[in-house]
Sequence to fold (434 residues):
Amino acid sequence: MTETYVRQFEAFAGNGGSEGPAWLPGVRRAAIERFAAVGFPTSRDEEWRFTPVGPIAHAEFRPAIPGTVTREALAPFLFGHGEWPQLVFVNGKYAPELSAVPALPSGVKLGNLARALRREGALLERHLTRHARPETTPFAALNTAFMRDGALVHVPAGTVLDDPVHLLFVTSPDAAGSVAHPRNLVIVERGARASVVESYVTLAEGATYFTNAVTEVVSGEDAWTEHTRIQRESERAYHMGFTHVDQARGSHYRSFTLAMGGAIARHNLHVRLNAPGIETLMYGLYLARGEQVVDNHTAIYHDQPNCNSWEVYKGVLSDRARAVFNGKVFVKPEAQKTDAKQTNRNLLLSPTAKVDTKPQLEIFADDVKCTHGATVGFLDPLSLFYLRSRGIPPETAQRVLTYAFAAEVVDEVALAPVREELTRLVLARLGYTG
Fold:
C-alpha cells in the first residue's frame, strides 16, 4: 500500500533519515513524492502488464532490522574464496564483523554506503541517483527514498583489481515480513579494471520478505568492468532489482545475471552507451519452478556510433512457473555503425509453464547491423530418443539436455570459481547427480 510507505518514510526521515550530506534529504523527499504520485504499477502499465506486483502492493512489510548471522552460515555463498574482498549486508545493513576488506591498491574505496554518505559526500553527489533515476520505475523511487546502506566500490583511474569484489546481501531467518532497500554504487574510472559479484541469498528458506535493490555502475573511458548478479532469494520472497550502467568511450562492460529465487522476482538492467567504441555483453539465465514468476527487462541505449552490444538470455521453466522477458535496443540517428544482437531462448519442461517474451529493436540509423530473436519450446524429441537409445534413462536424458541448454550462458562467466559454483547450482536445481 502506497500510504504505508509514505508513513514509514516520515518515521524514517525523523529517525536518522535526514543524516548525511545537505543534498540528500531533498533527493529522498522528491523520491517519496514521486512514489506517492505514481503508486505501484498495475497491469494497465505497459511495462508491467505481465508482472503481477499485487502481492507486493497489498502487503504491509515493516522496515528490516539487523539480524544475527554467523560466518559459518555464509560459507556456502563465498565460492570457496573467503579471502576475496567482500562486503556483507544482513537484512540490508552492513555487517563489518562478517566482511573482509584486505589491503587494496592505492586510492581504491571499498565500503558501505552509510559510512560513505558521511565521508564521501562530493563523490556521491556526482553519481548517486544520477544514473538510476528515481523516475525510471516506482520501485527505484521507493529505493531512493529509503536508501541508507549498501555498497560503494570506487576504483580510480588506471587501477587493476586482481581479485573480484563480492557484495553479499543475506536475509536472516528472523527477517520474515520485512523490506530492505539496498543501494549500491560501483565506479570504475578511466583505464581501470574490476570484477564485481553481487549476490542476494537467504538463510530464511520459506519466509516471505521483500528486497528492493538498486545498483548504479559507472564504467569510465577504456575501463573494463565485469558484473555478475546472483539472485537466490527464498522462493516465497519478493525481489525487485534495478541496475543502470553508464559507459564511456572505449569501455567494456560484461554482465551475467542468474535468477532462481523469489515468488515474484524482477530485474531491470539498463545500459547506456554514451560514446563511440563501447562494447557491451549481457548474459542471463533464469530458472523457475512451482508457481514462481521471474521477469527480466533489459534496455540497451546506443547513443553514439561504432558500438557493439551482444545479449543472450535463457530460461528454463517447469511446473506452473511463468517467465517474462522484455529486451529493448534503441539506436539513435547518430549511432551509425552499430552492431547489436539480441537473443532470448526458453525451454519449457511442463505444458503448464508459460513465457511472455518480447524482444524489441527501435532503430533510427540506417548503417547498422541489428538482429533479434526469441524461441519458446520443449526438449527436442529426437535428441531425447538418441540418448535413450544409448541406454540413458529418460529422466537423466532430460536433465542432460536441459543442462546443456543452460550451460551455454553459464560458460560465459569469466570467473572460474563463480562459474563452477553456478554450474553446481544449476545441476542441483535440475536434480542432476550424475
Notes: The two ends are 47 Å apart (CA to CA). The longest strand covers residues 193-202. The longest helix spans residues 394-410.
